[in-house]
Each structure stands twice: as structure tokens, then as C-alpha cells.
Amino acid sequence: MAEHTGGLTEEFSGEHTIDPSPTHPNLTNPTLDLSTALNNTDPTTTYLLTRLNLPPTTPLTLALFPLPPAGEKPTAPLIALVQVTIWCSSSERRLTLQGIYDALMGRFVWYRENPDGAWTRSIRHLLSLKAMFVKVQLHSNPESTSQGTTYWTFDISQGEGDKRVRQRLYPGRAPVLEAAGESDVAELGDSD
């Protein structure tokens, strides 16, 4: 297990760190209380705390992510925001797509100011691309012909990779540098 130093890992957020102390101003209204965190054996919560480089006693909540200056987008990677949102914003550990949007808009002003922005498409793309995000279709009435409600859940046992191998836009064409060998690359530059 990675050593916990009290900040987000560089992979998730670059140079930004979080002080997980109880006096930190962003740790208000945690959804996972301290007693649960202290006795936590849940692998997904452990995974999130490890990936965020936080001590195992840290309550998981969107408030862990610092508020950016007014008018600026949050600096945390979208995948980290979506993971914590799904895992911590619902006691069932699942949210509808709109529930994910609402939770992010509730925490970050930038998302509220850009409700129809590209970030919504990025979230849909992320949910459909990454294997750890699982779509769950629930029917309120088994005899109903309606689609029911679609929820998204977060299952680390599915792995961190993509759900499927991504195909190139033009499968028969390889980029010049990718198709060329090492010696061919030098020749391409000297062709004047």
C-alpha cells in the first residue's frame, strides 16, 4: 500500500495537496463518518484513499477537493471527482448521470456556471470508457415495458483500464512516425 502523506497524488492532481486535518475548511459535512473510516475494510474506500494519497482515517467526501478561485475549473482530474462523487454522494454507492452532475455542481461553482459545458460530455465519455464504472439498470416494476432508471456505480474489481480496446479512426492507416522504423525517422527529416 502506498505511503499516505496527506495530499492528493501527483497523478490525480499535479502539485495540489490537501490537509486532511479536522480543522481543514474544506472538510465540512463528510458523508463517511470518522468511525466508519477508522474501522474501514471496504476495498473501494481503501483504493480511493490510497489513490488520493490520504490517511485511512480521512472521511471521503467531495469537500476533500479544494475549491478553485472564482471562475476557474477545479484542478482535480475528472476521473477522481467522478469516483468520489459516485462513492460518497449516495448511501447506495450509485448515482444517475444527473445525480453526478448535480453533486459536482453543488460543490464547484465552475460547474454551476457551465451547466451545459463540455464537462458533461467528458463525464459521459469517461463513464462509458473506463471499466471501473458500471452501468446498472433498475426497473421499478418488473412487468413494466419502460427502461427503468439507469445508475452508475464504481467497482474497482473491474480494473482501472478501458472497457474495450479503442480502435483508431482509420484502422488501415498508421501515423507516419508510428509506421516508420527508427532509421526511417531520421531519413524523413533529411529529405530536403
Automatic annotation (TrEMBL):
Keywords (A to Z) from UniProt: DNA-binding, Nucleus
GO biological process: anatomical structure morphogenesis; cell differentiation
Annotated GO MF terms: DNA-binding transcription factor activity, RNA polymerase II-specific; RNA polymerase II cis-regulatory region sequence-specific DNA binding
Any one GO CC term of the record: nucleus
Alphabetical list of PROSITE patterns matching this protein: FORK_HEAD_3 (PS50039)
Domain Fork-head residue range list: 73-168
CDD domains: FH_FOX
UniProt-annotated location(s): Nucleus
Region annotated Disordered, chain positions: 1-30
Location, primary (coarse class): nucleus
DNA-binding region: 73-168
Official protein name in the record: Fork-head domain-containing protein
